[in-house]
Amino acid sequence: MATTPPNPRPNRRPFPQLSILPSKPAVSVSSTPPPQPFTAASTLDSLQFPVFLGAVSFTQGAYGSVWGVEDNTPRIAVKVTKIADPDWLQMARNEYETLRMLSHPNVLSVHGFSLTQDRSTARLYMAYIQGKTLAELINQRKRLEEADLKRIMRQLFEVLAYFAEKGVVHRDINPRNLILTGTFLTVIDFQTACDQAKCEGPVGSPNYQAPEMWLAPPYNTQVDMWAAGCVLQRLVRHCYREEAPFSPAGLALAALCMLPDPAQRLTARQALAHNWLDSV
User: Fold this and answer.
1) pTM listed for this prediction
2) Which of 47, 76, 176, 239 has its CA at a distance of 20 to 30 angstroms from the CA of residue 142?
């Protein structure tokens, strides 16, 4: 039987189902907590993954696919990358190495990584997350209540605060890489993540790239805060209704996350202390 995801903040109220307008849940699936990566890659290679979950895309275009197996415990998905370029192998390895060092309830968990003998295909074994990305909800014109946006953004800022403590820069925070199961958030897609001491060059989705990626490399975890501000700004526009205007405090928080100077931009910890998030 499905269980409730682990609560990333002590004493917080349980995550409710997403309040879509008109009132109905956006996602009617289980909220199983991410399993621990105990299974060896050699064992995982013997599993069959019959459920196609989608193509994997990056700036160069689609280069892989994700498949799932539903009759395994824990439920597992595999990202299959066809290695047509050495950079793709590096991104696949980078995602595994980054995820292996992270442990947070709102971060995708991994089980293993394998590479075929001819080095033509890489497989990343990970938790099977059921839900919808924020991009899917936006494309389906699903409107969210402001209270749900607060829950989503609080979780995102908590993850970014954790990344800052670890010195990890995701570099591609955008609605496609944020999955919702109910209102529980999971951050995915770490191919371009890097140590903040080694980040250079613009990567990720252009509409979510901080200006310092282009103007003042090297840069740090504040580029993810810019991207989070872009996410919040887009969700505010998407959820606007004349009969229920959005709180000015939420708009102010988005603006503070998108200050051009990264030294003046809010950190994740400062964003968590903003009064817009007081009620969640």
Assistant:
1) 0.79
2) 76
